[in-house]
Amino acid sequence: MQISKRIKSLSRSQTVEITNLARQLRQDGIDVISLSVGEPDFTTPKEVIDYASLMAEQGKTKYVATDGLPEFKQRIQEKMKRDNGLDYELNEIFVGAGAKQVLYNLFMALLDPGDEVVVPDPYWVSYTEQVKLAEGVPVIAHTTADTAYKLTPEILDEVVTEKTKILVLNSPNNPTGSVYTLEELQALADYLDDKDIMVIADEIYEVLVYDGEHISLASISETMKKNTIVINGVSKSHAMTGWRVGYACGDSEVISAITKLQSQLVSNVSTPAQYAAVRAYDMDHTFLEEYNQLFKKRRDNAYQKMVELPYVTCIKPEGAFYLFPYFKETAEKCGFNTVDDFVKAILSEKHVALVPGSAFGYPDNLRLSYAVDEDTLNEAMDRLKSFIKEKL
Ligand code: PLP
């Protein structure tokens, strides 16, 4: 059987692969600490689980509308108004099987072969692969630690061409933890104002901001609202990664196009999972405040320990749950040619799973997820420290 060229040329998600490898080692009885995961370490709030099972018991187990359960779309509408100051009609909202699937639908619906999509690096692994699947061309806008890995109009201007159709902007960012300020978003909005470029604003880590505040790009101006599709979901906000519920808000024509695609792909997102998401959005907001405080404490601890490691430099992340330190010099001083080799060695020798920056198009760094409890993080950082000490 010949597998298609499309799939042959597709890269596997390195973050998923490393997480699977760590899981496998653990099943084999090895005490692996995984700092490679992109999900909160605790389970979904009990009231969310209870509500979903109650709804299932009451027979809410049938197909529902392709673009999303009306009750959940209404909660999204209220949330966007309350938290982001954005008014969307119900036909401007679409629910998909996680933000990941919503993004896939968008690239499929918006790109013709050869259309360019600007993706700032370091980037979340799936953007570029999904663009390629849709026969688009990912164009990398290179950012550096000098701007805290944030895109500026100057960097953007270097890569925009007449073929640019989409810009992907992710704030709070995976893998860097950077959060765009109002001024930074304003500057990008000014640059984009007279351009025919659709922005996909991936705001999946919205609730995990520790310094400053999350501002939705779409809320900057009427033009930005028209030209932006906001992506969000419950995976990271309510520890609901396995339920697979994410959504998009934006132009009704685009929403209608991705709904048409969805009707041939998935029909609709799992009905009980959408009820679970309804409950998540109805929950008392103190949950989110406590959640945020917990991650802020973890961020502070992880960051402090990271910058104490020899030759490591790291921007202090303002959001999400990752550190993205520059590790090249440390890796080299420890006798490794690349950060990839360092990451492989520490997994096999000290059983700590990290993700090499190459997975994000940024090979001199690595990503550490601090979505783990304090003891686990401390133990991992001790292993990292002693590994480096032994090798230096
Ligand atoms: N966008 C970013 C930046 C992510 O890091 C992730 C998950 O890791 C997603 C989207 C996908 O989220 P979901 O679980 O809703 O598909």
Which band does the percent of strand residues land in?
Answer: 5-15%
CATH topology of the largest domain: Aspartate Aminotransferase, domain 2
The CATH homology group name of the largest domain:
Type I PLP-dependent aspartate aminotransferase-like (Major domain)
Helix-strand makeup class: alpha/beta
Q: What would CATH call the architecture of the largest domain?
A: 3-Layer(aba) Sandwich
Description:
By secondary structure, this protein is of the alpha/beta class. The protein folds into two domains: 5-42 and 286-391, Alpha-Beta Complex (Aspartate Aminotransferase, domain 1); 46-282, Aspartate Aminotransferase, domain 2. The chain is 45% helix and 13% strand. It has 15 helices and twelve strands. The chain has helices at residues 5-8, 14-27, 46-57, 70-84, 98-110, 125-133, 153-159, 182-192, 222-227, 252-265, 271-282, 286-307, 328-333, 339-350, 374-391; strands at residues 33-34, 93-96, 116-121, 137-142, 164-170, 198-202, 228-233, 246-249, 322-323, 352-353, 355-356, 366-369. The strands form three sheets. It has a seven-stranded mixed sheet with strand order 2-8-7-6-5-3-4, sandwiched between helices. Strands 9-12-11 form a three-stranded antiparallel sheet. The chain has a two-stranded parallel sheet with strand order 1-10. Strand 3 (116-121), helix 6 and strand 4 (137-142) form a beta-alpha-beta unit. Helix 3 (46-57) packs across helix 11 (271-282), helix 5 packs parallel to helix 6 and helix 12 runs parallel beside helix 15. It binds pyridoxal-5'-phosphate. Pyridoxal-5'-phosphate (PLP) binds next to helix 5.
